[in-house]
């Protein structure tokens, strides 16, 4: 488990990360989203022990990370601006990581390099941006660590590669309980892979929730109400309405509550027509953050 308590980092008067409290459980995918400059990289760099927090603490499985080799062997960090040794080939990097990470899976490294069509003997500085990302991801998953920190890792990967990387993560999660932590400014990118999402804004966590919990507790209802009935009347049947949109007679309501509760209330209201539709992660975030007074569209899209 990774635990941040009051984690804070300042740079020359800028509070990049502001008293963050977060818990990241093993075996799930934690997505960290937020606009440019929200503090995602600074947070991950503290989790990875690259930066020392100014206040608060960050622990991995109970161990402080900064200058702690034992804690650092528990994760692989793919930074936004990836570092490779000068003139190194993927094979050189693999030989280095094999020493650092005792569980490094060399056979898998060769096999993945081949299936990604990458030449392991070519200098990495001659690779494209996306190819460099692929090398980092391959080294990251082969390192055999419990945690994998990815800072904008999907950026620069083409759609086929993104899918390939997502499925590798999924199989590693199933087979060896890998915990990926993925920072991105793109909510859509994380939708199909994350179990838990933390929304970072101006250095603080605005919202941190399990996706399943979010999805089960919020729904969209499209309906045509009977003559004379208004959406507000539905509240008398126990419906908690977060948002109402109307096009002609068709209403689209965003409502809170579990599905059976919503269905029960709608049946009691007896509209001419209704159907419940699941919300996308984007729509859920818009609704959840509007409730706490933010216009999330300005924050992440
Ligand atoms: N080394 C540094 N020195 C000074 N300021 C810094 C440093 N690193 C980050 N910052 C500042 O901290 C804030 C958060 O930056 P950070 O890189 O963590 O954001 P981010 O959410 O990862 O953004 P992006 O999506 O653009 O990568 C920004 O205001 C940035 O200018």
TrEMBL record:
Record-linked InterPro entries: AAA+_ATPase, ABC_transporter-like_ATP-bd, ABC_Transporter_VariousFunc, P-loop_NTPase
Domain of life: Bacteria
Domain ABC transporter: from-to ranges: 2-227
Keywords attached to this entry: ATP-binding, Nucleotide-binding, Transport
Annotated Pfam families: ABC_tran
Keyword Nucleotide-binding attached: yes
GO MF terms held by the record: ATP binding; ATP hydrolysis activity
Protein name (database record): ABC transporter ATP-binding protein
Source organism per UniProt: Brotaphodocola catenula
